Amino acid sequence: MKLMRIVSRIAILLVVAAAFVKLTAMYGNSARILPYPRFPFSPYTPSALEQVEMRHQPAAPDVGYVTDFVGWGIWLAICGVIGRKGFRLRLNPARRGERQPILLGLQRGGLASSAPPAGPPPH
Amino acid sequence: MKQHWRLKTTFWLDIALLVSVCALQTVRFTGLVVHEWLGLAVIAMVLAHLLFSWSWIATQSRRLFGRQTARERINYVLNLILFFFVTAALFSGILISQKAIPVLTGAVVSPDKMDMRWATLHEEFAGMVLILAGLHLAINLDWVLAAAGNAFRRFRESAL
To answer: Which one of A54, A69, A80 has the shortest CB-CB distance to B134?
Structure first.
């Protein structure tokens, strides 16, 4: 019963993925890829040098490029921070108290009982 | 105990996915062989990730055209777009594969016959996946921090 449930869920996910593959294939076969970017993130034809590089990627790993990996990690973190702070993305709305200013209790009588007096003691 | 196992598995699976998404961006670091096999492994990881989140997916899908807050709708659409771009990146990657898919299918592939159109699109899709993964992380950050706290607290307790 549990196995059937898992299999049916996988089947649903695969159907959705198949629809996305179909859409991607339609886009890939019809998109005009210009020799220059029209706007940020728009695909453009790589230069001859880039094409050679893309065709002949090294098969073996090179630990010297770990900085690239770290750089992409930082880029992902930046996207996360932009999403969190800029777009306020989260599963649930922020708790009411989360965005309240911190009360320092500096108003009259707030810390009067615990804080020492600022000036010399009255005589 | 079962809940803890599930939480721990989901947490480490998500960490593995996050590291994989970053590692897949740099072919020179992983090498083409690891890049392609890791890409194929990501298919299984994404499926497992979605199965673990099934209750959320099912609830939000049922509510999509009904009563739903703007936040829930935006989160749902963002996750759907992320799934689309992950699928697109994996599909385009399979189309230009030189190492992993030829091993599985027995086909002979020449790098010089690689379809540059799909190679270009693969890079674009992968870039979008990274951006959307960052936004996905932003949405679920509270859960990730809570799960990390839980996982490491139990780790510390068992070490003492």
So the answer is: A80
Mean pLDDT along residues A74-94: 89
Burial classification of residue B51, based on how many CB atoms lie within 10 Å of its CB (0-12 exposed, 13-18 middle, 19 or more buried): middle
Q: What is the C-alpha separation between A98 and B20, in angstroms, rounded?
A: 33
Contacts of B101 (CB under 8 A, 6+ apart): B36, B94, B107, B109
Which amino acid is present at A103? L
From chain B residues 1-30, the ones with a CB under 8 A of any chain A CB are 18, 21-23, 25-30
pLDDT number for residue A98: 56
pLDDT of residue A69 exceeding 50: yes
Nearest to A57 by CA among B99, B101, B9, B127: B99
Which DSSP category does A92 fall into? S
Enter the tokens of residue B94. 């399979």
Which residue, among B117, B105, B101, has the nearest Cα to B39 in the 3D structure? B101
Q: Which chain B residues have a beta carbon less than 8 Å from that of A56?
A: 111
Q: For residue A112, name the pLDDT band (cuts at 50, 70, 90).
A: very low
Residue B67 pLDDT > 90: no
